[in-house]
Amino acid sequence: MDAADAPGAGRDPSADGQEREPAWLERVRRMARLDLRPGTPPSNVRFVLATAAALALSLGLNALAVNVATTEYPTTRHFSHFRFDDYGTLTIVGVLFAAAGWAAIVRLSSAARWVFFRLAIVISLLLWLPDLWILVEGETSKGVATLAVMHLLVALVTYNLLVHLAPAGPPPAQADADSGADAPSLRLSERAVRRIWTTAGLLVALEIALGVVVIVAVPFRRHDALLPPRGTWIYAAHGVVGIALGVCAVGVLVLSTVAGRIGRIGAVMGAAGVGVGLVGGVFSTFQTTRLLGMGVMLVAAIVAGVGYMAPTLEAVGKAEAARAEAARADLAARGAAGAGTVGPGSEPVTDEVVSSNGHGPGSRTG
C-alpha cells in the first residue's frame, strides 16, 4: 500500500496523534463557546425537581392565559389551539426538550448558562413562526397573540427554573482550586437567612389567611372567570399576594446558593410549594376543578410555610440544645464544688443527675 493510500493521508495530525478538527469547525465551537470543558452537572434530584416544576408552572400559566383570553374575548372560545390536549402536549414536549438541551449543554461547555440563554432566544423566535403562519392563514389575531404569549411564558419559566434550580457548577479543576483556603467565599449569615426566609413564611401565612377570607366572601358556585362578580377586591388581593410570593420564592431560591444546607432545603421546599400552589390557583378558576384546586393550594401553602420556617426552627433547636448543655455544665460544676467541700458524714451532692433536656435533675434508675 502506498503512503498516499494509507488512512489519514493528507491530514494534519495533532501532536498527540489525534486527528485535528477542521479550522472552520474550531472557529464555530469557539464562537458558540462549546469548549468541551464541561462544568459540574447538577444532581439528578435537582434536575428532576427543576424539570417537574417547569412542567407544572408552564402548564398552569398556559391554562391561565387561555382562561383570560376566552373570558375577555369570547370569540376565541372555539379556537382549536386552546384545547388542553393541544397546547398541553406541546408544552410538555417543549419543556422536556429544553431540559434535555440543558443537560447536554452543561456537559459541552464551561459557559453553559451563556449558551442556553442565547439558544432559548433563538428557539423562542422560531416557535413564533408557526403562529405567524396560522395568522396569515386567517386565524383570529387575539388567539394567535395568546399563543405567542404562551410560548414566551414557557420559555421564561423553563429557562429560569433550570438555570437557578439545577445550576451547573464550575469545571472540576476550577472547583478544586476554588475550594482552597485562600479562595474568597460569599455566604449569608444565619441571622440574614432567618430574616429573609421568615419574611417569605409570613407572606405564605398572609396568603393562607386571604384564601380563607376568599372562601367566605366569594361564592363557590360561580361561573368560570378570572375575577368573580362578588368579593372582587379580596380575590384580587389574594392574587396579588400570590404573585408577590412567587417573586419572593424565586429570589429566596437564588439566595439559597449562598446559604447553609437547611436554608437551601427550605428554599427548594418553598419554591416547590409556591409553584404547585399556583397550579392549584389556576384549577380553582374553573368550576369543575375548583375544589381540587383549593385543596392543592392549601397543601402547597403548608409545604412552603414549613420550608421557609426551617431556618428558624433550626435556630430554636440549636438554642435549646445550648441551654441544655449549659445547664448540664452548671450542675456538673456545682457537683464538683460540693464534693470538694463536704465534711465527714455529709451527703455528697454529686448524686444529682441531669435530665436529658438539661432543665433540672432527673431520676436515677437502678
Overview of the molecule:
- The chain has 366 residues and is mainly alpha-helical.
- The protein folds into two domains: 32-171; 188-318, no CATH class.
- The protein has helices at 23-31, 44-72, 84-105, 112-136, 141-165, 172-178, 190-217, 232-255, 261-284, 290-341; strands at 353-354, 361-362.
- It has a two-stranded antiparallel ribbon.
- A hairpin with a 6-residue loop joins strand 1 and strand 2.
- Helix 8 (232-255) runs antiparallel to helix 9 (261-284).
- The radius of gyration is 30 Å and the shape is flat.
- Residues 1-18 and 175-184 have low confidence and may be disordered.
Unreliable residue runs? 1-18, 175-184
Q: What is the H-and-E element order? A: HHHHHHHHHHEE
Give a count of the beta strands, DSSP E runs of length 2 or more.
2
Number of helices: 10
Output the structural class. Answer: mainly alpha
In which range does the helix fraction lie? 55-70%
Shape estimate:
flat
| Structural domains: how many | 2
Q: If you compute it from the alpha carbons, what radius of gyration comes out, rounded to the nearest whole angstrom?
A: 30 Å
What's the pLDDT, averaged over the residues?
Answer: 76
How would you characterize the largest beta sheet?
2 strands, antiparallel
Spatial strand arrangement across the major sheet: 1-2
Give the termini separation.
94 Å
